[in-house]
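lol forgot to send this yesterday, sorry. struct tokens for the thing we talked abt
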């Protein structure tokens, strides 16, 4: 009889855990509610669909408005500088941790590199994005992807996801999740050296 009670309690605990997990996922501010997840540890480009832009492929073109709505930015084709395109959201914990590195990288490389931070506005709130940008003291352009067209074109499934695009318009690196600042610098030193 005692064994039956233990089994019953274990089953009830499991059911409660599943129900609570589902309820938490329904919060409209959570990435789970939108179907977007944060990066999986160890996620690599090999796990992406064949159509996803990867190292060596041409960077998809798009045009988006800035966060203030006053400027429009075009991406695609050859450029004068290397470009980093960083897809992020204000609710994303890894994006929060990565933000100081992006600021430091832009300060160090801005004469040789452009950095566009593309907010996943279709999964975020503009008010939250503006607060995030102000708090993190972004000095580089922040673009809004209200329809998700840029994220779709780049096959972004988790945040942050970044791309280093060479002057020739080809992707040099696809970065899923966060990487150490030293790794960023290694990639950018290589990408921005004169050929």
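and heres what i got for the seq, position by position
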């Amino acid at each position: 009889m005692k064994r039956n009670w233990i089994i019953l309690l274990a089953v009830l605990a499991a059911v409660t855990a599943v129900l609570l997990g589902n309820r938490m996922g329904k919060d409209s501010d959570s990435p789970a509610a939108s179907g977007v997840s944060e990066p999986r540890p160890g996620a690599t480009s090999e796990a992406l669909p064949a159509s996803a832009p990867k190292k060596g492929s041409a960077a998809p073109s798009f045009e988006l408005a800035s966060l203030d709505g006053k400027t429009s930015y075009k991406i695609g084709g050859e450029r004068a500088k290397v470009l980093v395109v960083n897809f992020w959201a204000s609710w994303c914990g890894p994006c929060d941790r990565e933000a100081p590195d992006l600021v430091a990288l832009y300060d160090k490389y801005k004469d040789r590199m452009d950095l566009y931070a593309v907010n996943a506005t279709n999964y975020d709130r503009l008010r939250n994005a503006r607060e995030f940008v102000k708090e993190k003291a972004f000095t580089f352009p922040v673009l809004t992807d209200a329809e998700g067209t840029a994220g779709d074109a780049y096959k972004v499934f988790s945040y942050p996801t970044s791309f280093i695009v060479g002057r020739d318009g080809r992707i040099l690196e696809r970065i899923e999740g966060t990487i150490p600042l030293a790794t960023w610098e290694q990639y950018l030193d290589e990408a921005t050296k004169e050929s």
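The domain at 53-192 is CATH 3.40.30.10 (Glutaredoxin). anyway ping me if u want another try
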